[in-house]
Specification:
Elements lengths: L8 E6 L7 H14 L3 E5 L2 H6 L3 E4 L26 H13 L4 E6 L1 H14 L3 E5 L15 H22 L1 E7 L6 H10 L3 E3 L7 H13 L5 E6 L6 H12 L4 E6 L11 H19 L5 E6 L2 E6 H6 L6 H10 L2
Helix pairs in contact: 1-9, 5-6, 6-11, 7-8
Bound molecules: adenosine-5'-diphosphate and 6-O-phosphono-beta-D-fructofuranose.
């Protein structure tokens, strides 16, 4: 979509689940905007901050020394009221009062839906920047925060492996990913897990028990089974319980990594990705492009219209799944 509106003042928000690298993206938006003589307003707490007019002026020094910080300096929230047209009317009125002519939303596809409605209903130019540890957004090979999350998970799983090995234990490790198995599959390959369960592939716990039994006969001394939280109802706790019923002699343990995967200093890959995407988001708005998300595909920066982002799903690589299975034999 191309609309040539003159933009003087940009708003930027972070919305949905926080992700390491969001600060690097905010920093990049602020510095690129200032370089292009635009003003930047930070909106606190995602869409809730638009509804409450929680605005802060962002200058170049406001984002000094933030690139290495996890979380988001603008804070984030889930704001269910934003699904109501009435709330969006208030939001638009507040943005206009603050003379914000365009919005950059750093978040997941839920956040882009809210932003896209502001564009459709009021003609506000909007660009999305994909920030979520889940890596589940169509239109980019990687989302901001994913690389940090898998490194955090892998570091934790390597440590769990030490105890698993020392005591001959099978560990069931639950990682995040309510609807997507990217974190689970990538950490499985990186840590050499014995098995991985993800939402994209149907889970058969009986089959898993058999597989683990065979594994042990080959004199493996320990086992790590990585379970994406959305792979099966009840998550890793359910899987551990059923496997224990089938293999009562096995010593098993359960670990849920939880929100440690969302925090921490972003990796260099996430800092660089966030810096490039934030920069490109501002450039797109200056060029009159909007209603789209910036992403990286095959090392090239690309804009994908929101409709396409919403219609499609980032696909798990079948090849990676197959390689993981072969390497875990
Ligand atoms: P993410 O952006 O990480 O996918 P959510 O799905 O929780 O996270 O969405 C974040 C916020 O975006 C929601 O709390 C809500 O304010 C807004 N949002 C999500 N879906 C919609 C929608 N269909 N219409 C309007 N706003 C939405
Ligand atoms: O940020 C995405 C995510 O980490 C999902 O994988 C997970 O299901 C969800 O957030 C949990 O978030 P919250 O605790 O905020 O509901």
């Amino acid at each position: 979509m191309k609309q040539n509106q003159v933009i003087r003042k940009l708003g930027v928000i972070t919305s949905g689940g926080d992700a390491p690298g969001m600060n690097a993206a905010i920093r990049s938006v602020v510095r690129t905007a200032i370089y292009n003589n635009l003003e930047v307003v930070g909106i606190m707490k995602g869409f809730a901050g638009i509804l409450n007019s929680q605005f802060i002026e962002l200058k170049s020094h406001s984002v000094s020394k933030t690139i290495s910080n996890g979380g988001t300096m603008l804070k984030s929230s889930r704001c269910p009221e934003f699904k109501e047209a009435k709330a969006r009317e208030i939001a638009y009125k507040n943005l206009k009062e603050k003379e914000i002519d365009a919005l950059i939303v750093i978040g997941g596809d839920g956040s882009f839906k809210g932003a896209s409605l502001l564009q459709q209903e009021f003609g506000l130019p909007v660009i999305g920047v994909p920030g979520t540890i889940d890596n589940d957004i169509f239109g980019t090979d990687y989302t901001i925060g994913f690389d940090t999350a898998i490194n955090t998970a892998a570091t934790a799983i390597d440590k769990i492996r030490d105890t698993a090995d020392s005591h001959n234990i099978v560990f069931f490790v639950e990682v995040m990913g309510r609807h997507a198995g990217f974190i689970a599959l990538h950490t499985s390959i990186a840590c050499g897990a014995e098995a991985v369960l993800i939402p994209e592939v149907e889970t058969d716990v009986k089959k898993l028990s058999k597989y683990l039994e065979l594994d042990r006969r080959k004199e493996k001394t320990s086992g790590i089974v990585i379970v994406a939280e959305g792979a099966v109802e009840g998550g890793a706790a359910y899987v551990a319980k059923v496997v224990k019923e089938h293999l009562p002699n096995y010593d098993t343990r359960l670990t849920t990594l939880g929100h440690i995967q969302r925090g921490g200093s972003p990796t260099c890959n996430d800092r660089i990705l966030a810096s490039l995407l934030g920069h490109e988001a501002v450039n797109a708005l200056i060029e009159g492009k909007n209603g789209a998300m910036v992403g990286v595909i095959n090392n090239h920066l690309k804009l994908t219209p929101f409709e396409e982002v919403f219609k499609n799903k980032n696909q798990i690589s079948k090849k990676m799944f197959e390689v993981d299975r072969i390497l875990s034999l």
